Amino acid sequence: MKPIFKMTRSALLAGSILATLPMAAPAALAQDGDQIEDVVTVTARRREESLQDVPLSVTAYSGEQLETIGAVDITTVGETTPNVTLEVSRGTNSTLTAFIRGVGQQDPVAGFEAGVGIYVDDVYLNRPQSAVLDIFDVVRIEVLRGPQGTLYGRNTIGGAIKYVTRRLDPTEATFNARLNVGSYGQLDQIITASVPLSDTFRIGGAIANYERDGFGTNLTLGTENYDKDILAGRVSMEWEPSDTFFVRLSYDTSEDTSNARGGHRLIPGQLSGAPVLDNVFDSRGGLNVVDQQVDTEGLSLSADWTINDNWTFRSITSQREDSSTTPIDFDALPSGDFDVPAIYDNEQFSQEFQVLYEGDRLAGVFGYYYLDASALTVFDVLLDNVIAGLNAQTFGEVDTETYSFFGNFTYDVTDQFSVTLGGRYTSDERTSRVLRRTYFGGFSEFFGGTGAAVATTSDFQGTNDWTDFSPTLSLAYEMDDRNNVYFTYSQGFKGGGFDPRAQTTGAPDFDQSGGVSDAEIFRFMSFEPETVDSYEIGWKFAGDNYRHSLAWFFSDYQDVQIPGSVGIDTTGDGVANDFTGVTTNAASAEIWGIEYEGFWTLGEDVANAGDSLDLSWAVGYLDGEYKEFINAFGVDVSDDVVIQNTPDLTASATLSYVTPLHGGDLTLLGTVSHRGDSSQFEFPFAELDQDAYTLFNASVVWDSEDGRYQVGLHGRNLGDEEYRVSGYDFVNNDTLLSELGAEGVLTAYYGNPRTVTATFAVRY
User: Fold this and answer.
1) Cα–Cα distance measured from residue 18 to residue 316, given in angstroms and rounded to the nearest whole number
2) Could you report the per-residue pLDDT of 229-249, keeping only the tens digit for each?
3) Cβ neighbour number for residue 512 with a 10 Å cutoff
4) DSSP character at residue 504
5) How far apart are CA 421 and CA 151, in angstroms?
6) CA–CA separation, 727 and 675 (whole Å)
7) Rounded to the nearest 10 degrees, how much is the dihedral formed by the CA atoms of 168, 170, 171, 176?
8) Where are the domains of the chain?
9) Per CATH, domain 10-763 is 2.40.170.20
10) Quick check: 373 and 346 in contact, CB under 8 A?
11) What pTM, to 2 d.p., does this model score?
12) Which of 79, 247, 479, 738 has its CA 20 to 30 A from that of 617?
């Protein structure tokens, strides 16, 4: 089939263009190596160009690669991508925490914009709920590091992760099935199928059911902890009346009915004296007023029209929504000391237009993006051990309306030297309602309780808007067929907002006038945008047996948004019985690092005829520090804080050996993945933060010669390493006036233990 787009080279390959390309099935997990060049090679200006020419740091994983290593969800790619953190966020299976090069967003409540953009088939996901995407029917996952926004979609300050699903076969019916059986009762069933109904129209779908018992037990409720129960599906229809016009309509849905993840207390109960449990996957939380459930659905319509040899038009329209109910037992104890049932409801509509141009020396894209989104967060905070029946409720709703114009064009000054210029104009408007009320008698009506509201501590409504222009400049020089060097400057922008946990009664008298004005309340409830100026110098080399991508980057990070919570003692007894959110543009930071990704085909020197032995690796080093960090008391504590969720060293290596066996190929894979010390929050605390650790994964996979059958055995975290991926700290953060709750909250959540999974797949 003729490609829908006539692609431009360099920067366009790293953006929306890649979503339309077919993918090869590499034998090894290579990033910028030989396999990936084959994966993203396109015919641009009637000649082949590849990822080797792109003046950006991009790591790509094919669907075949991810199946071969036994990847389950999107967080797997974080293990082998330099300077990237992808983790399941605290109490659910579905909420994602993402950081790239030290830039991200940990807090999933309404009002905070993501620092890393997550895309499904070029549709931007506005909220982190339901962003832990399970891997099925995927053709490729791409990780773009550094600010994005002049090529497609929403502006993202830290980077972008693109999840690209598979297009339907235009000529033949297909059927694929995969069964995974493994540790802790794992049973996954994945089926995809498609059928052409005519020469121009085809329909297809996929359904996936993921089940697993818990790694531990909630000892109070008698339920499984860290279990998994997710049902997901996708249906798509494609119409292609000619080789110049293509339309795709797709619908996806998922339902996560797993139990809430209970945290592991790191300290004894300060009131009850409850001891620390031996098993980090066990918990004693007693909150059960709501069952956890996460429902997601989305509808998208994309159309591509190749007008002539020079011009292509594309439209992407999408409507998405998700709803989550989750019981978060912060203190992880039976009593209602710090119990927080929560509701998250999100809706979004987006429209994007792109116009692509391909000339003799000039090629590029310009476009328009629009997003209308609403995010609602409601949660109770039961503090029974402070005052019986005391409940501090928060109702926060934030509406976002934003539009952008963007463009990115590459001009070939000579056959070797090219210049890329890009820019993005963004207009953001946010409107917020924050209602904070004090209840007595237990939980509120939102969670089936009989508590009664006795006081309103915040009833705020506000609107704010911002505009921004973010430029991009790249210079690329292809010294010869093997070497490409480049310099890229890009600016990132993340919009401001309102903290839904803030309460107007906590606003300080900023001007010391003796009273708190409406302007001071607005200043306290809101925060401004943050920006980053990113500079990158790279060298990409492509030899016969060895390839690499080497990059140095520097980021000047300004007006960093720092969310936090301040305990409030409203009774004067020295114990915080309420809290207020405090989010300020408190910080500026400088971050620099090096990334080295490579691929080496060891070949006939160490392998027999017909065999292959390949080595791929990725190393990321990052050094960052805050130049200024103003805490809730107006004190600069920059010497005491660190860049959160970002190890100074990330490294991985994968050795792959492929040999013919019984009419097919046997692949042996071994991966080692290392992450250095990292802090959960800006303020480090040894008991909650994670020391350096190393994971070992291995796979044995047999593929039949015709590609119809696959049998595999996958072991992950074979060393059974215990490592923390998130947590809560309400006893050591120096922005707190006092501890919130009587038991003290220092709770951690952990990555998966050792698992072994057998897989069987058929493809027709």
Assistant:
1) 15
2) 999 999 999 999 999 999 999
3) 7
4) G
5) 11
6) 18
7) 0
8) 10-763
9) yes
10) yes
11) 0.90
12) 479
